[in-house]
Amino acid sequence: MASTRHIPLESQPNFRDLGGYATADGQRTRFGQLYRSGNLDRLTDADRATIRALGIRTVIDFRSVSEAQADADFWQAQGARYMHLPIDPGNLASLFWEAMRTGDSSKLPDDILAVNNELVIDEARDQYGELFNRLSDPSNLPLLFNCTHGKDRTGIAAVLTLLALGVASEDARADYLLSNVYREAENQAQLNALRESVKDKPEIDFSKLEAAFILQSHHYTVILETAIQRYGSLDNYYHEGLEVSPQQI
Prior knowledge:
By secondary structure, the chain is α/β, with parallel strands linked by helices. Helix content is 48%, strand content 7%.
């Protein structure tokens, strides 16, 4: 089932279908309706053909203004609506990419992904609320949402969506952590290039940058704990935080 969800692209390793997950009422999430991905700025001709066949109607891009370089013409040619809903909590995305550029991670928190997830749950309510609004209207499906690596802002969006549909928490956690599997080669390539660029700067603390690439199980826990701490329950987070009605769910 996991291999069926993964859609191999030449330019993006973390493009996945969220279908096939069992729900509490004995059903399963449908294949071919909801996709998650990292950036899709460098599509090859083969990738374009693969995506074209999916019939995507709506694209929601969570990347910050400085990150997003979407091929809007491609999506328009497919008849898809492209929506840019930038998420950059605490300016962390900008700080991270500056650290990647310079190799200097001194301004990053020690556990950047835990901090990121807590901030996103607090600060991206409008963006995730709009995602749920779009998902609740079948005319917007199939729908794709993405960020840069397809693991953090996109990972949280996938977790919230799966849990809203009644998917078991451990299955939502497993889907969240799968980005480590599909991004392993790209993670190592980016980290190796960065190590090479800073090899003559022993004063640089590289561990903070490494930590930004690998999801841990407790990062998933932070998502749920933050929502529950702020709103009392996950249902309240959906209804009060995201302003999504029970009917829309």
